[in-house]
Design brief:
mainly alpha; 7 helices
């Protein structure tokens, strides 16, 4: 069984993904054909991305890579094992779910420590990875896909507030009612 390329990550026929230190070929998928690009290791490509854009810690890139895997597996379960392209909005939801699962109430703190403060930062990380060949994109994908994401407070802090604080923050975040 040959290599399957999806969003630039090589997987062998038994589902193991090659995101280790071993070299892999970042690929562009489409009609079943894969375009073999330059052979580089994940670490080399990651370091290249960080040299170009040092705003984000190394762990932020690794987290996005893992969150993409998490998202793809979630989508595959919903579509009976069929792998397909992941949109920016789908990836953002997967990132949120994965962050909450991995870090719970510390998710926002961990992401902030890595330099990630909003959904646009995730888009920057994704496209930095595209530029160094760690991920692939379609012609329809762009950074603006990550602009209409969620509010970090609502996504990562609110779920862990005590009920009394959630009510107060709902009142504070609600627009004032206009009197008649």
């Amino acid at each position: 069984m040959g290599l399957v390329f999806r969003v630039g990550v090589a997987a062998d026929g038994i589902g193991r993904q090659n995101v280790s230190n071993r070299p892999y070929a970042a690929g562009i998928y489409g009609t079943g054909a894969a375009l073999k690009m330059q052979e580089i290791s994940f670490d080399e490509a990651l370091e290249s991305a960080r040299v170009k854009d040092s705003r984000y810690e190394r762990d932020a890139y690794i987290f996005v890579r893992e969150a993409l895997d998490y998202t793809q597996k979630s989508i595959a379960k919903q579509s009976r094992g069929r792998m397909r392209h992941v949109t920016g909005q789908e990836l953002l939801e997967g990132i949120k779910d994965y962050a909450l699962e991995q870090y719970g109430p510390m998710a926002a703190t961990v992401l902030e420590a890595w330099g990630v403060r909003n959904c646009q930062d995730f888009g920057e990380i994704v496209f930095n990875m595209v530029e160094v060949g760690l991920l692939a994109k379609t012609d329809k994908d762009n950074r603006s896909d990550f602009e209409a994401g969620y509010d970090f407070y609502e996504a990562f802090r609110r779920p862990f507030l005590p009920p009394s604080k959630q009510i107060c923050s709902e009142v504070l975040s609600s627009p004032p009612s206009v009197g008649n």
